[in-house]
Design brief:
205 residues, alpha/beta, 434 Repressor (Amino-terminal Domain), Rossmann fold, 2 domains, five-stranded parallel sheet, two-stranded antiparallel sheet, 7 strands
Length: 205
């Protein structure tokens, strides 16, 4: 299995005898940036990768290659507080995105915690979940990773007016269907490598 950028960065940092804070100080960035790069939640730009190479004494080409996303499966999460609906939606998503790694949650805080530990490419969120709104969860996910694509699921069309103010890129009226999912995949704000109809990583066509 190909080593991810985060794993390689952590390995090179430890070999150099540096803590996350020490490396951050050398690069004039926050320690949280190093942590995000090592966990895979974010990737540094090309200039920062060059600076990392210089500080870690490693080949810049090795870091650049590792920064390309070679994950076999794009990571997708689904949040719906009704277990029966969640299970049905997962079946639909699995058919619409056969190559995706799909995780389902009925508890909003668990979905957010998962996103803090893993880079989520695409999130499907029910809007109305008791005292918790999917609109608020969307904002939390985008705070964690601004490049997460968020698509709302709801039975109420009126919610669509509020949905666009949260940074989401799609809106699907229930019941969920394969055709509706595939239509949204082609409209993602941040293309996800490995999803049908959305194969470019850089947004080009």
């Amino acid at each position: 299995m190909r080593v991810s950028f985060g794993e390689l960065l952590r390995q090179k940092r430890i070999e150099k005898g540096l803590s996350q804070q020490q490396l951050a100080d050398r690069l004039y960035v926050e320690r949280s940036s190093i942590a995000s790069w090592e966990t895979g939640r974010r990737l540094p730009n090309a200039l920062m990768i060059s600076q990392l190479s210089a500080q870690l004494g490693t080949d810049v080409a090795e870091l650049m290659v590792a920064s390309e996303r070679y994950e076999e499966s794009p990571r997708v999460i689904l949040l719906d507080d009704e277990k029966i609906i969640l299970n049905g939606c997962i079946l639909v998503l699995s058919e619409a995105m056969p190559g995706a790694n799909i995780s389902g949650f009925t508890v909003p805080s668990q979905a957010v915690a998962f996103a803090r530990e893993h880079q989520v490419d695409l999130a499907f969120l029910d809007i109305e979940m008791g005292r918790v709104s999917g609109l608020d969860i969307c904002r939390q996910l985008l705070d964690i990773n601004p490049r997460t694509n968020v698509i709302y699921l709801t039975a109420y069309r009126d919610y669509s007016f509020d949905a666009w103010d949260t940074g989401a890129c799609g809106f699907i009226l229930k019941p969920l269907s394969v055709k509706k999912v595939q239509r949204q995949i082609g409209r993602l704000r941040y293309p996800v490598y490995g999803l049908e109809g959305n194969k470019k990583k850089d947004g080009s066509s």
